[in-house]
From TrEMBL:
<feature type="binding site">
    <location>
        <begin position="243"/>
        <end position="245"/>
    </location>
    <ligand>
        <name>S-adenosyl-L-methionine</name>
    </ligand>
</feature>
<dbReference type="InterPro" id="IPR040072">
    <property type="entry name" value="Methyltransferase_A"/>
</dbReference>
<keyword id="KW-0489">Methyltransferase</keyword>
<dbReference type="InterPro" id="IPR004383">
    <property type="entry name" value="rRNA_lsu_MTrfase_RlmN/Cfr"/>
</dbReference>
<feature type="binding site">
    <location>
        <position position="135"/>
    </location>
    <ligand>
        <name>[4Fe-4S] cluster</name>
    </ligand>
</feature>
<keyword id="KW-0963">Cytoplasm</keyword>
<dbReference type="InterPro" id="IPR013785">
    <property type="entry name" value="Aldolase_TIM"/>
</dbReference>
<feature type="binding site">
    <location>
        <position position="319"/>
    </location>
    <ligand>
        <name>S-adenosyl-L-methionine</name>
    </ligand>
</feature>
<dbReference type="GO" id="GO:0051539">
    <property type="term" value="F:4 iron, 4 sulfur cluster binding"/>
</dbReference>
<dbReference type="GO" id="GO:0000049">
    <property type="term" value="F:tRNA binding"/>
</dbReference>
<dbReference type="GO" id="GO:0002935">
    <property type="term" value="F:tRNA (adenine(37)-C2)-methyltransferase activity"/>
</dbReference>
<keyword id="KW-0808">Transferase</keyword>
<feature type="binding site">
    <location>
        <position position="138"/>
    </location>
    <ligand>
        <name>[4Fe-4S] cluster</name>
    </ligand>
</feature>
<feature type="active site" description="S-methylcysteine intermediate">
    <location>
        <position position="362"/>
    </location>
</feature>
<dbReference type="Pfam" id="PF04055">
    <property type="entry name" value="Radical_SAM"/>
</dbReference>
<keyword id="KW-0411">Iron-sulfur</keyword>
<dbReference type="GO" id="GO:0005737">
    <property type="term" value="C:cytoplasm"/>
</dbReference>
Length: 372
């Protein structure tokens, strides 16, 4: 059995990366109450503080003016440390797509994206700084893994961008965040415990959490089979998105190196187990890469593998990274791929491309910051 490649950056090789200080969003409501009592504060402060952060999307303790000044300072030190320092924010698509680059407490860089549509507002958030999955066509995979993010570092991205949406700056979109996709930097299921905790914060009713619908949360994975099966038992109604990218083991071994450990058949079996246990349709993500995985016979093979299953294929026009040998498939090739999948009875759409003018591919903005 070939071992799974896990790549570390030079900055963290040989030492355990330091996690950030504790934050309100790391704790459930009972944990917050205990933390405040330990600070000499009454338990009710936990709901008061949670209402500010999750209900009003207020992240600055100094703006919580219904708290005594001395209490604000104490709480800021213990429960509201600054986790994300803005490095760069960029907008495109007439302001409907906004990408943020953050520096974490240890200097690591992560990205998140806000996307406004007529009927919804979606944020794409990161779960790791870098990624250890080593997919060669992905900018994050090329950077290697720095460390897992904490629960609060994950949640804070969504809370910040929910605040941006609430400000009304995205014309033609609702002002309330409705959807979160774990499709930013990192492999979410490689940071399993913190990602699941983040999902519970995002979906718990205010003031304990952000109050989003579980059905509006999507967790992507390249196919970590044990974690996929574990997620099926979490009593969650989130969507599982499988980044497949090839229907055959020979090519997927190259494009998604984790396939060297868990082959296509085993990964799909875990996906169908998730669908059976949750009743949720699995999304199969497939990046269309010119002359690599876009041949008609691969469309036919994918159709045979997925036909009759509770699934939907999301074809993704590749957003090539600078200097990469990979490029997007031609539109006629893409259309033929769609036609063949639909002919096999497989629900298929092509993802709306967003953010190409602002280093839209995940990891591009962080990479450009490092090299400037």
């Amino acid at each position: 059995m070939t071992s799974l490649p896990i790549i570390q950056s030079a900055a963290t090789a040989g030492r355990r990366p330091a996690m950030p200080p504790r934050h309100l969003a790391d704790l459930d409501i009972s944990g917050r109450e205990a933390a405040l009592v330990a600070l000499g504060e009454p338990k009710f402060r936990a709901r008061q503080l949670s209402t500010h952060y999750f209900g009003r999307l207020e992240r600055d303790p100094e703006a919580m003016t219904d708290l005594p000044a001395a209490t604000r300072a104490k709480i800021a030190d213990d429960l509201l440390p600054q986790l994300l320092t803005p490095v760069r924010e960029m907008a495109t698509d007439d302001g409907a797509t906004r990408k943020a680059l953050w520096r974490l407490h240890d200097g690591s860089l992560v990205e998140s994206v806000l996307m406004g549509y007529p009927d919804r507002v979606t944020v794409c958030i990161s779960s790791q700084a870098g990624c250890g999955m080593a997919c060669p066509f992905c900018a994050t995979g090329q950077a290697g893994l720095t460390r897992n993010l904490s629960t609060a570092e994950i949640v804070d991205q969504a809370v910040y961008l929910a605040g941006v949406a609430a400000s009304g700056v995205i014309a033609g979109s609702p002002s309330r965040l409705s959807h979160v996709v774990f499709m930013g930097m990192g492999e979410p299921l490689a940071n399993y415990n913190r990602v699941v905790a983040a999902v519970r914060r995002l979906t718990s009713p205010a003031p304990e959490g952000l109050g989003l619908s579980q059905r509006h949360i999507t967790i992507s994975t390249v196919g970590l089979v044990p974690a996929m099966r574990k997620l099926a038992d979490e009593d969650l109604q989130v969507t599982l998105a499988l980044s497949l990218h090839a229907p055959d083991d020979d090519l997927r071994d190259e494009l998604v190196p984790v396939n060297q450990r868990w082959k296509v058949a085993e990964v799909l079996d875990a996906a169908w187990h998730y669908a059976d246990r949750t009743g949720r349709r699995v999304s199969v993500e497939y990046a269309m890469i010119k002359d690599v995985n876009d041949q008609p016979w691969r469309a036919d093979l994918l159709g045979r593998l997925l036909a009759g299953r509770q699934t939907h294929v999301n074809l993704i026009p590749l957003n090539p990274t600078p200097g990469s040998k990979w490029d997007a498939s031609a539109k006629p090739v893409e259309r033929e791929f769609v036609r063949r999948l639909r002919a096999a009875g497989v629900s298929t759409t092509v993802r709306d491309t967003r953010g190409r003018e602002i280093d839209g591919a995940c990891g591009q903005l962080a990479a450009s910051e490092v090299t400037t």
